[in-house]
Specification:
Layout: H1 10-15, E1 43-48, H2 54-64, E2 67-72, E3 77-81, E4 94-99, E5 102-104, E6 109-110, H3 129-133, H4 170-174, H5 177-180, E7 190-195, E8 213-214, H6 245-254, E9 271-276, E10 283-285, H7 286-298, E11 303-306, H8 315-326, E12 330-334, E13 360-365, E14 383-386, E15 390-393, E16 407-411, H9 413-430, H10 436-445, H11 466-469
């Protein structure tokens, strides 16, 4: 089964609907597999030839009756809406026109691997500046005790922290994060979470946030206030999380340690750059993801976490990934949650951006070290990481997904991916002069084999090992 996506209409972005299709992946409905097919979103990606000036591009679009949504200037790409698939454009001015294809986060799973349901009666307008930027009481948020796993970290297991939920974060122990903290905690590194946004006021994240942006024009909700240094509004909309997915991912990477509340991230001293490219229902478009990648790289992110994907594989998204790599950034992406018996479904329909060259693609494991049943397989996989029953931060206000406020336990390759991003931040913090390829190779060569010696299509080079990656000690 392939890593699937649902093509969106603009009405879906505005009005929204529940997660569709397989609860473990992306719907195959209306997938556009070639540039010859019409985009049901009405949005297209137009790449003009290098010699065509910006005024000439604008004139060509106007003559064709197309409307400009946004320029992705470094790529020479215009995102446009068009009623005729760009057919009215002067072919001598254009290299390619392609549908602005769909992307989505893998369907959110709870601690038992079941789909998380949408919150009854919720709408984007229920978000207000008061409950988003104000947050909930620091001591009042957290999962009920029935949700917590009892997997306490033993004595002598590295640096101790005073965060009360760390003992319930089995993934930290599995990747040997606390031994790695003897060397570094990720200071000096910025990780972009390209996702549904982040709870900007979460007490376990707020101190680790840097300026972010939203490329989701249709969000109805609060914008970042003018005096909020963490927010760089795009069309006056800040990167506020209205789903919960992005906040959970961010906490796995960089929840603050030793603050006496909540849990801790893999790299608790690194910084998170919130880049919102997915709407409240975790759906989005490749043009927005490409825009987010470019913006994050241009604003100082060294690691880009993309717990999202699709099967369209546009030239524009591939070129955005290549741009990031050419500018020294490392991209880490989720394999997806469609996993089936790999002997029956090996390598069917590679997903993007996980399968693009240079991208670190991540599958998910369970607390017993087994590969999670939902985790995709394929020759493009790089690493595995804890993905099932992961406790992390969630918005302190009601969002589209019916999550516990503050902290909750979720599962998926979306949760596995930030364990690798956090470990990459530790490596880069310890070795600031290294290139992205050196960081990538250290991730691979320090991983712990799970299934077979060397590479396999279910776990890649093995499960990420933070302590071995930074040379804290040879932990297996």
């Amino acid at each position: 089964m392939r890593f699937r996506t649902l093509l969106l209409t603009l009405a879906t972005l505005l009005a929204g609907c529940g997660l569709q299709g397989s609860p473990f992946g992306f719907s195959t409905d209306n997938v556009a597999d070639s540039t010859s097919q019409l985009s049901v979103t009405g949005r297209y990606l137009v790449h003009f030839r290098d010699a065509v000036s910006t005024p000439d591009q604008a004139a060509a679009l106007a003559a064709a009756g197309d409307s400009l949504v946004r320029d992705i200037t470094p790529l020479g790409v215009c995102i446009v809406t068009s009623s005729q698939a760009g057919a009215g454009l002067d072919a001598q001015l254009v290299d390619y026109v392609e549908p602005d294809g769909p992307v989505a986060a893998p369907a959110l799973l709870d601690g038992n691997g079941q789909p998380v349901q949408a919150r009854s009666g919720w709408s984007p307008t229920s978000l207000t500046a008061a409950n988003t930027l104000g947050g909930a009481g620091v001591q009042s948020v957290g999962p009920p005790s029935s949700l917590l796993r009892s997997q306490a970290l033993g004595a002598g297991n590295g640096v101790s922290v005073n965060d009360p939920l760390v003992a319930d974060q089995w993934g930290l122990s599995a990747v040997h994060a606390q031994q790695a903290w003897e060397q570094t905690m990720g200071q000096g590194i910025v990780v972009a979470v390209i996702d549904t946004g982040v709870d900007l006021s979460h007490p376990d994240l707020a101190g680790n946030l840097v300026s972010g942006i939203s490329f989701v024009d249709s969000v109805q909700g609060p914008s970042g206030s003018a005096d909020d240094a963490r927010v760089v509004p795009f069309h006056n909309v800040g990167p506020v999380d209205d789903n919960g997915h992005g906040t959970h991912v961010a906490g796995i990477i960089a929840a603050e340690a030793n603050d006496g509340i909540g849990g801790a991230g893999v790299a608790p001293l690194c910084k998170i750059m919130p880049v919102k490219v997915l709407a409240y229902n975790t759906k989005g478009l490749e043009g927005d993801v490409a825009s987010g990648i470019i913006w994050a790289v241009d604003h100082g992110a060294r690691i880009l976490n993309l717990s999202l994907g699709g099967v369209g594989g546009s030239q524009t998204l591939a070129r955005a990934v290549a741009y990031a790599e050419a500018h020294g950034a490392l991209i880490v992406a989720a394999m997806g949650n469609d996993g089936q018996d790999p002997t029956l479904h090996y390598g069917a329909d590679a997903e993007f951006p996980a399968s693009l060259p240079g991208v670190v693609a991540v599958g998910a494991t369970m607390a017993d070290g087994e590969v999670a049943a939902y985790s995709n397989h394929g020759s493009w996989i790089s690493l595995a990481a804890p993905g099932s029953g992961i406790l992390s931060t969630t918005p302190t206000y009601p969002v589209f997904e019916d999550l516990q406020p503050g902290y909750d336990i979720l599962s998926g390759t979306s949760m596995a991916t930030p364990f690798v991003s956090g470990t990459a931040a530790l490596i880069w913090s310890e070795n600031p002069s290294w290139t992205a390829d050196q960081v990538r190779q250290r991730l691979f060569h320090s991983a712990t084999d799970l299934l077979f010696p060397g590479f396999d299509d279910s776990t890649g080079w093995g499960q990420v090992n933070a302590a071995a990656a930074v040379g804290a000690q040879a932990v297996s």
